[in-house]
Design goal:
Layout lengths: L1 H9 L6 H28 L1 H24 L26 H16 L1 H20 L5 H21 L4 H18 L1
Helix pairs in contact: 2-3, 2-4, 2-5, 3-4, 3-6, 4-5, 4-6
């Protein structure tokens, strides 16, 4: 089922250059949109920004651990489908790009539901673009959403940071710096 679904999605690539170019941009650079948004939030909602970044880091660490335990070669390494972007022949399962996006998106659900839903949809599009590009299986994307979900829940519940406390600490640091100048 996983390989069949991969072939259905990946089989759409290579037939329309403008569509391929758009998908390649999404497959490669969509995570940067998520990171930029998390940085933007740092100005207004530090807690949400910090929790989302922590969730992404936790997710990537979990992916690394999963990769030590289980190795699934990328589809193009196994001779399945065709890749329209070059990629190293490292582990396919789960997708680091999609885990990062899913972890941030789920973290945003706690902040404003509509923003979280929007970013979850973007994460899904970003993940599926990596299947279309031939560098991940659909199961890699699904597993990444599971890892991202649990990473966001963990970060939210175990790394709670109060915006007021953060502001107080930031002010004290700022005061110390200005005293030295």
């Amino acid at each position: 089922m996983n390989k069949w679904l991969f072939l259905q999605i990946n089989g759409l690539s290579g037939h329309n250059l403008p569509v391929d170019q758009i998908v390649i941009l999404m497959a490669k650079y969509m995570p940067y949109l998520f990171i930029l948004f998390a940085i933007y939030l740092f100005v207004n909602k530090k807690t949400v920004s910090i929790v989302s970044i922590q969730a992404a880091v936790i997710g990537l660490i979990l992916n690394w651990i999963i990769g030590l335990i289980y190795f699934e070669p990328r589809p193009f390494v196994s001779g399945i489908g065709h890749a329209i972007i070059s990629h190293s022949a490292d582990a396919s399962f789960p997708s680091d790009h999609t885990t990062l996006m899913a972890a941030i998106a789920v973290s945003l659900l706690f902040y404003k539901r509509w923003i979280g839903v929007l970013f979850l949809l973007l994460a899904l599009v970003g993940g599926l673009s990596r299947v279309y590009a031939g560098i991940h299986y659909p199961i890699d994307i699904g597993a990444s959403f599971v890892v991202g979900f649990f990473s966001a829940i963990f970060a939210r519940n175990f790394f709670k940071i109060d915006d007021k406390l953060f502001s107080i600490a930031q002010k004290k640091i700022s005061d110390k710096i200005t005293k030295k100048i």
